Amino acid sequence: MSRFPRQTAAAAALLAALFAGGCATTIAGTPSADPAPRPTSGPGADPAAWTDKVCGALVTYWKPMTPGALPNFAGDSTEDAIKKRLSDYLGTVSAAIDQGQQQLKAAGASPVTGGDDLVKSYADAMTRNGKTVADAKAEVDSVDPANAQAFQQKLDSADAKLKTFAAPQGLDKLGNTPRLVKAIEKSPKCGEYRQITQPPPP
Q1: How many domains does the chain have?
Q2: Region (Disordered): which ranges (predicted)?
Q3: DSSP H or E segment with residue 192
Q4: Residue 91 and residue 47: Cα distance in Å, rounded?
Q5: pTM (2 decimals)?
């Protein structure tokens, strides 16, 4: 059991702030005797494959912030240990956001109308949340564990930053885009994203 219950509770509360806040037409090609390979993105691409890539990026981005991935401070016997565990965790979250952004870019252009706008909203959220986590980590890294009062103040400051963290965006922002909705329903990665971002039971 931690000998620093106040700092341990503050660190746990800081992490809890992470969770307080996640088309109709395809342009058809002209048939030919020797058709070119189907594109992997943009007009003519398979909506299901493209959607699975997008949701895969969202899973990468959000998975370290699920309740099961939260660090356990119960065994930390020093404030140095609390600081390191919290800093390491925020570093993991930051790396996942960066990787999710790269995967989102790699998905390419949407094959159906409306998909690019959806991806932009996800990309914007990742950028904002990435900065929030980086700022919070900087607060934690700058603290002197030997100064209990300063440590508490830095944790409170980091907590205030993380309370601005945007909640996971759902997959319901598509509007009247039946082909993309159908692709999302069939996507294993979209199903996983829904599962890990659903709110906990009351």
Answers
A1: 1
A2: 29-48
A3: helix 188-197
A4: 33
A5: 0.75
